[in-house]
Design goal:
By secondary structure, the protein is mainly α. It has helices spanning 10-23, 27-39, 43-53, 66-74, 78-81. α1 crosses α2 (27-39).
Length: 85
């Protein structure tokens, strides 16, 4: 965790101070939660989004099978490029 300093307008500071008192937490924690939600998103939402793409292309017939594609990509052409066949 890193320490940082923020400059907040008086009305924002007062609102955060009141919320922190009601929730029995700190202004720092409120800011961390808000920043995490805004810039990282909800973990469960991210997980659902990632799970939503699983198998997305499973019915595609225009793609070669994975094993063939990986073997083709990994196949070395160095000897051919150097004319050593």
């Amino acid at each position: 965790m890193r320490r940082t300093q923020l400059y907040l307008e008086d009305d924002l500071w007062l609102a955060l101070h009141a919320k922190a008192a009601r929730d029995r937490t700190t202004i720092s924690e409120l800011v961390r939660v808000a920043a995490r939600d805004r810039y990282l998103g909800n973990r469960e939402q991210r997980r659902e989004a990632m799970m939503g793409i699983v198998g997305l292309w499973k019915e595609r017939t225009d793609l070669e099978d994975t094993d063939t594609m990986i073997r083709r990509l990994r196949k070395s052409t160095r000897r051919e490029r150097l004319g050593l066949k």
